[in-house]
Amino acid sequence: MKISVVGTGYVGLVTGTCFAETGVTVTCVDIDKDKVQDLRQGIIPIYEPGLEPMVKNNVDKNRLFFTTSLQESLKDTDAVFIAVGTPPDEDGSADLQYVLDVAREVGEHMENYMVVVTKSTVPIGTAEKVRKTLKEALDKRGVNIDFDVASNPEFLKEGDAIDDFLKPDRIVIGTDSAKAEDILSRLYKPFVLNGHPVISMDIPSAELTKYAANSMLATKISFMNDIANLCELVGADVNSVRRGIGSDSRIGNKFIYAGTGYGGSCFPKDVKALINTSDKNNHSLDILKAVESVNERQKTTLVNKLMYHFNNDLKGKKIALWGLSFKPHTDDMREAPALSIIEKLRAEGAEITGYDPVAMEESKRRIGDSIQYARDQYEALVDADALLLVTEWPEFRTPNYNVMKKLMKNHLIMDGRNIYELSEMKNQGFIYYSIGRKAVKPE
Ligand code: UDX
């Protein structure tokens, strides 16, 4: 089989490379010439464990090609996956310009039947817009070539994208044509051999599934974060509550970890978009509005605790931040709690030194030298009044406490991810605040 994948961002590159891995001939298309040049040599523009060698391997085996010409890629192709960006409009809804540009160009150049698949997360109703735009382009040419549209949302997690693609929990295919469903089922067959289902449905349902999945996960997180806030007031421990409820299989034990709020490229954007779609349909998704506001509040909960500890005066305080990315194993800082924390700390006049195993370049790109950067996690602690742990990178889990205490001015830790045991903090003599658990103070 032969497919085209348009857009070599995160989703497109992972999708194209993983299909190539199964022996499909894949042409990835991007308008960025330099990016295409790099990709041809196996150099990838994003940080994703395992992706670079896989790209290189498939390029070397002549199964994965990169081009700037969409037209060239369409020859004899069975399916075109549209994985271009959908940046938010001013009102927060996705801008479909790039998606529809691709649909138009496909219509201008296609010569054979193909299924045109939306892979980017797009608003409900987008596949129909793609169909209309493509048909108009065909009509302009005065030709009548058969095609179908389909929705095939992705559920990849950054840092686990390859594994998620190769061993998906499920594959959702939204079509209204048996032919299109057959092509997509054949393409995905290698990934469902171990019992993971392909779930076929109509197109709007597939489009909504993606939003509903991410919004449900975001809801679980905000719910637990607010329960954590209550735990602090009534003297309960959110970790115990989590274990207590998570063992009920109806609730499940995933995505119920309290923390400093969710970030990233998907949850914040998708929650907003679903609220928007709902509002436009004269239905207020109140539950998601609450999820969003709880998350905003949660992002700065560490700073509030810090303010409380220092009697509302952070002026000139030296604060160390461990972790800048929105979660471990990525350099992605989109909507990262670290950004809200830094903004609030700066407004209070604190001096900040940050350290992150991979996101420091990204941080410099975003916020320049508005904070200082340390070469390693310990350097960040020199003379620090407090350490804020923002991202739970593995290397922060078992640090050398003696070195930390030697370096820090105050032995104060604010843990936004609950990675340390209360008893250990007590034994080590730290003042320790975390999320939804009792504060620990040395006797
Ligand atoms: C998410 C979805 O998991 C994925 O299916 C979708 O395709 C894209 O969005 P991703 O954004 O890469 O993936 O990150 P994920 O690992 O899901 O974490 C999202 C955020 O939730 C992070 O900020 C994380 O710290 C936070 N989180 C997650 C919690 O605060 N508590 C949890 O229990 C789980």
Automatic annotation (TrEMBL):
Pathway entry: Nucleotide-sugar biosynthesis; UDP-alpha-D-glucuronate biosynthesis; UDP-alpha-D-glucuronate from UDP-alpha-D-glucose: step 1/1
Binding locations of NAD(+): D30, K35, T86, T121, E158, K269, R334
Chain ranges of the UDP-glucose/GDP-mannose dehydrogenase C-terminal domain: 320-422
Superkingdom, natural source: Bacteria
Keyword NAD attributed: yes
Catalytic activity: UDP-alpha-D-glucose + 2 NAD(+) + H2O = UDP-alpha-D-glucuronate + 2 NADH + 3 H(+)
Signal peptide: none
Record EC number: 1.1.1.22
Keywords: NAD, Oxidoreductase
Active site: C266 (nucleophile)
Gene Ontology biological-process annotations: polysaccharide biosynthetic process; UDP-glucuronate biosynthetic process
SMART domains: UDPG_MGDP_dh_C
Residues at which substrate binds: F155, L156, K157, E158, K210, F255, I256, Y257, A258, G259, G263, K327
InterPro entries: 6-PGluconate_DH-like_C_sf, NAD(P)-bd_dom_sf, UDP-Glc/GDP-Man, UDP-Glc/GDP-Man_DH_C, UDP-Glc/GDP-Man_DH_C_sf, UDP-Glc/GDP-Man_DH_dimer, UDP-Glc/GDP-Man_DH_N, UDPglc_DH_bac
Molecular-function annotations in GO: NAD binding; UDP-glucose 6-dehydrogenase activity
The protein's role, per its UniProt record: Catalyzes the conversion of UDP-glucose into UDP-glucuronate, one of the precursors of teichuronic acid.
NCBIfam families registered for this protein in UniProt: NDP-sugDHase
Family according to the record: Belongs to the UDP-glucose/GDP-mannose dehydrogenase family.
Designated name of the protein: UDP-glucose 6-dehydrogenase
Organism annotation: Salinivirga cyanobacteriivorans
